[in-house]
């Protein structure tokens, strides 16, 4: 990777150290390009804050002399800018990664971060779609645009949503696929996907998903090579995740879907519906590419929440339900 930090008010030695850290997380931790971009944005925001906070130009010595109050001031600014606890916690994790790396290579030592209390994150439960809602999303009819003459766009959208729900892919995983990743042969019953940390996994793929991808490639709008992106935009470049989000927003309105209906909710739906069908957690962990089983276990809480809701509505001791049962039996 070429030098990515060339900020005028950052001294050369610090620019070099920052770029060395970027190279480390890219080559040693083998994180995805999207994760590297996120690290870069987080540290860039922190560096620019420090330039204003300290008065620049910024040096390694400045970083070494930071105290807990400086980090808290940065967190307070992020909060004033409207960032939620989850975002602030992620940014602080990036900063901690940088300081740990610079300590490891003996560039600087600063333990002030150890005295910072990180934002408390509420434990969130995934919000999947119902089976019927998921079917509506991947239906061909709902992906059609009556004003569009490009049938390949609708076929592309359908293929993407089929992969998100039918294989539990993250949006980034689906959009990083190239044409040679598509399971085009009759004997191919899995699809190989690169997940977080550049780790690959094989996922079973249903015939309907294969047929959808084949239909899309038959309509592919230009001559392609096998290493070209599988999913492209109207200008021929690799499709942006933002476009998929916009498509989902329109479908949410057209289909009267809940607010939690996002591209990522299809992955949650995949995992939840598998669990409800009796698939064991270890298998779901492998299919989703979770590094830890504890991450997959959150889907058991979805099941518990749904069961409690069903119990509350159906139990005869529920006052309203009891009155309804009495009325029905009279």
Could you please describe the fold and organization of this structure?
With 330 residues, this protein is mostly helical. It has two domains: 104 residues, Tyrosine recombinase, N-terminal domain (DNA polymerase, domain 1, Orthogonal Bundle), CATH 1.10.150; 161 residues, Intergrase catalytic core (hpI Integrase, Chain A, Orthogonal Bundle), CATH 1.10.443. 56% of the residues lie in helices and 3% in strands. It has 15 helices and two strands. A two-stranded antiparallel sheet has the order 1-2. β1 and β2 form a beta hairpin. α2 packs across α5 and α11 crosses α14. The radius of gyration is 24 Å and the shape is globular.
Residues in β-strands, percent: under 5%
Provide the structure class.
Answer: mainly alpha
What distance lies between the first and last C-alpha atoms, to the nearest angstrom? 77 Å
The CATH architecture of the largest domain: Orthogonal Bundle
Instruction: Provide the helix percentage.
Output: 55-70%
Q: How many domains?
A: 2
Residue stretches low in confidence (pLDDT < 50, at least 5 long) are 321-327
Number of extended strands: 2
Largest sheet: 2 strands, antiparallel
> What is the residue-mean pLDDT, rounded to a whole number?
84
- What name does CATH use for the topology of the largest domain? hpI Integrase, Chain A
Number of helices: 15
**CATH class of the largest domain, anyone?**
Mainly Alpha
CATH homologous superfamily name of the largest domain?
A: Intergrase catalytic core
Radius of gyration: 24 Å
Sequence of strands across the biggest β-sheet:
1-2
H and E string? HHHHHHHHEEHHHHHHH
Categorize the overall geometry.
Answer: globular
């Amino acid at each position: 990777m070429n030098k990515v930090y060339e900020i005028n008010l950052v001294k050369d030695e610090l620019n070099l150290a920052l770029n060395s850290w970027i190279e480390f997380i890219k080559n040693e931790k083998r994180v995805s390009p999207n994760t590297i971009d996120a690290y870069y944005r987080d540290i860039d925001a922190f560096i620019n804050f420090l330039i204003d906070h300290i008065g620049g130009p910024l040096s390694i010595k400045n970083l070494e002399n930071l105290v807990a109050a400086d980090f808290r001031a940065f967190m307070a600014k992020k909060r004033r800018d409207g960032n939620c606890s989850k975002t602030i916690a992620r940014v602080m994790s990036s900063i901690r990664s940088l300081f740990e790396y610079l300590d490891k290579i003996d560039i600087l030592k600063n333990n002030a971060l150890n005295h910072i209390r990180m934002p408390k994150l509420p434990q969130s439960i995934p919000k999947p779609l119902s089976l019927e809602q998921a079917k509506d999303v991947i239906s061909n009819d709902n992906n059609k645009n009556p004003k569009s003459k490009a049938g390949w766009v609708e076929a592309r959208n359908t293929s993407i949503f089929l992969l998100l729900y039918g294989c539990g892919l993250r949006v980034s995983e689906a959009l990083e696929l190239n044409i040679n990743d598509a399971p085009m042969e009759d004997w191919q019953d899995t699809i190989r996907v690169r997940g977080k940390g550049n780790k690959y996994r094989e996922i079973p793929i249903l015939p309907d998903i294969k047929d959808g991808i084949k239909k899309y490639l038959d309509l592919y709008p230009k001559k392609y090579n096998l290493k070209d992106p599988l999913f492209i935009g109207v200008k021929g470049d690799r499709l942006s995740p933002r476009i998929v989000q916009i498509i989902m927003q329109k479908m949410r309105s057209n289909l009267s879907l809940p607010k939690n209906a996002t591209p990522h909710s299809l992955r949650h739906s995949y995992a939840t519906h598998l669990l409800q069908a009796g698939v064991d957690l270890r298998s779901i962990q492998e299919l989703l590419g979770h590094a830890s089983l504890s991450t997959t276990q959150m889907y058991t809480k979805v099941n518990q929440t749904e069961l409690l809701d069903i119990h509350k509505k159906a139990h005869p001791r529920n006052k309203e339900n009891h009155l309804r049962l009495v009325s029905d039996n009279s």
